[in-house]
Write a structure and sequence with these properties.
Blueprint lengths: L1 H18 L3 H19 L7 H17 L6 H24 L2
Helix pairs in contact: 1-2, 2-3, 2-4, 3-4
Length: 97
């Protein structure tokens, strides 16, 4: 688990640095924050399902406003961030069943 936490933290720090110049970095960091919480605390953690939905919605809105719509890498990063949020939502919902 420590290896996973270190790996996520490394990418989270890179996303934080990226967020200083680009909103996409902020969205990636938020997604990694959620992943880090789930890895650290499991599905019983204090993750707010509404916060996850907000991140997914914010991601979709930001992607629609994106000035570089033709940039496939940026598009995939938005998709990856949204997919992580959706995956975490599904994991938490299933764990509560």
């Amino acid at each position: 688990q420590l290896r996973r936490m270190d790996e996520i933290e490394s990418y989270r720090q890179k996303a934080y640095a990226f967020s200083r110049s680009d909103q996409l970095g902020h969205l990636i960091k938020k997604s990694l924050d959620l992943a880090q919480t789930i890895v650290r605390d499991g599905t019983e953690s204090e993750v707010d399902i509404f916060a996850i939905s907000a991140i997914v919605n914010q991601n979709n809105q930001q992607h629609q406003k994106e000035s570089k719509q033709d940039d496939i890498i940026r598009s995939m990063l938005y998709g990856m961030s949204a997919s992580m949020g959706s995956m975490i939502e599904a994991i938490i919902e299933r764990s509560k069943e």
